[in-house]
Amino acid sequence: MKKTYFKGLIIVLLIVIGQKTKANTFITSGGDSSRVKLALRQVNEAYGNAFIKGDSSIFLNCYAPDACILPANSSAICGEAGLLAFYKFGYKTGVRNIVFMSLGLYGLTDQYVTEQGNYEMFDGNNTSLGKGKFLVIWKKTSDGWRMYRDMFNSDAPPARSVKKMQ
After folding, report:
1. Eight-class DSSP state of 94
2. φ, ψ for residue 131 (rounded to 5)?
3. pTM above 0.85, yes or no
4. What is the number of other CB atoms lying within 10 angstroms of the CB of residue 76?
5. What is the pLDDT of residues 136-164, one digit of tens each?
């Protein structure tokens, strides 16, 4: 009984350890992952170019028509008007480029895939404005792969609230 238990425990540990070593690799099921990776990289580069060029139409083209942005500490931002307002806010606050580094794709199907990664934002002098991480659910549309749900947050610690001294 104890031998069977320990053999089972060892098998479970090996599986868990094996999964942890694969955490930063692309995990897909079905589809051509190399073509998908390239398509996503191109859209991510276009996203940054939207800020470099100051062109909101490039930004909007990165998203599916029914997309939502899910920023930290905010309500979901959905629809073209919401996405456009989000872009204008970022541009107005000085964002002039965003660079994405993909860490993995998960659950690739013919219609959806989830991407995990890191980002860094830059101003017009190429000075970093901040870094963070993201999860994007991508959707295959008639125009190619587009962001469907875009969730992200900063690596910076939350701002501390100032308490009145009494």
Report:
1. T
2. -125, 160
3. no
4. 11
5. 999 999 999 999 999 999 999 887 755 55
